[in-house]
Structure prediction request, 232 residues.
Amino acid sequence: MTLHRIARMLGLCAVAIALFFGLMPAAFADDAAGTGTAVLTLEAPLLDGAPTDVYKTYFLRVRRRDNGKEYQFRYWAHAWAESSPNDLAATGGTGTVFTQALDAGDWEVFLFQIDTTGSAIRWRPAQEFSIPFTIHAGRAAYIGDFRPLGQNFKGSLGDYPGGVRFVVADRSARDIPLATAKTPGLGPVDVGVFNVDTMHNPLFSSTDAFAAPYDQSQFCRYMNLIACAPNL
Prediction:
């Protein structure tokens, strides 16, 4: 038996053992598991349209619609020990481009939370929502740029920084090259940004200028904000 044949047999044995024990190389594991990649951008929060250090961090939570599997995308704006990289610096913005492997299938963004600096206050919507997207095996899906716009609320004791509304827009021309540079081997990226205007939810818009004037009482109802209580 030649050394070449021995080496080949040993190689086949190694592959068989890897298959049996689940130790396959990542590239093969991705194909077998049927995974793709979610691409999205989380921008730094604004307060009344201006940069702010009021908010420390926020996250978007996604889940697979058939089995409930979840994943969380978190942006750190002003934290003592951690901050998210500014992938948008060269374009004049502030935010992070995420590329995350997810199981192939139908997913949705269904929850967000934003915290103030020091985590003194945290806000979540009063009800879940659904921003759907699909992950295809072996491909990447760009699901949008998420920009949180914070609001100050008027109360009898003064102004209160509250929760946020999100502009969810297609900025793939800017973000996909950044994602490709950040993640070598990302491969083809499909653009699938959901039109959040069809949700008729005042917490989301597809444009920087929300279609309707800001309605504090309506926003309070959707965000369930204690700062909006009549006596505060």
